[in-house]
Specification:
Number of helices: 7
Mean pLDDT: 73
Radius of gyration: 30 Å
Number of strands: 0
Distance between the termini: 95 Å
Low-confidence stretches: 14-27, 67-74
Structural class: mainly alpha
Helix content: 40-55%
Length: 183
């Protein structure tokens, strides 16, 4: 019994001596801190800070992105997000994003696409059929357009978006939406 207590005391005193004599870990430089993983990225093409101009407290503020999502065209990615004068995304814009997301998820099933578009028919056609409909500030339509001019402009804009889309699924979804609205 005395032997085990003696061994324990000896081990404890050796550990205490090592800790008090070892250099402090907080004072010596760590090789981990010098690792490229913890160094800022150096990109010769990028001369500005990627957060430059970003203010998280501005309503509707979004961090700049480097793109590459594959679905939207380059032109659409460069445009600022549609927003109301207060700087927030409009309810109509949110609803359209919801519909297009659902459309992309079911694009391979024609019956589901038809069912989805029919369930949102009133919403999709409202700004085209109703000349008194409130138009968003970023709308491609204007209040002075006739019904036929609105449909014509819608067709032109959708054709541009279809041609600008990169992903085949996006092209098909936009085409289905255009065909439904124009029929």
């Amino acid at each position: 019994m005395h032997t085990s207590i003696t061994c324990f005391l000896l081990a404890t005193s050796l550990a205490a001596a090592f800790v008090t004599q070892a250099p402090s870990l907080c004072c010596r430089p760590s090789s981990l801190q010098n690792s490229p993983l913890f160094q800022p990225e150096k990109n010769d093409d990028e001369t500005s800070n990627e957060f430059q101009g970003f203010n998280p407290f501005t309503p509707g503020a979004k961090m700049p992105s480097k793109g590459g999502f594959g679905i939207l065209s380059d032109e659409e990615r460069k445009q600022p997000p549609p927003s109301t004068p207060g700087g927030q995304i409009s309810p109509r814009q949110m609803k359209m994003k919801e519909i297009t997301t659902e459309l992309l998820m079911c694009i391979s099933d024609d019956d589901s696409v038809s069912e989805l578009l029919l369930s949102h028919e009133e919403f999709l056609l409202d700004q085209l059929n109703n000349l008194d409909a409130v138009l968003e500030p970023d709308s491609v339509l204007s209040p002075d357009m006739t019904r036929s001019q609105r449909f014509q402009r819608y067709g032109e804009v959708m054709e541009e978006r279809i041609n600008g889309a990169r992903a085949p699924a996006a092209k098909k979804a936009l085409g289905a939406l255009k065909d439904f609205v124009m029929s």
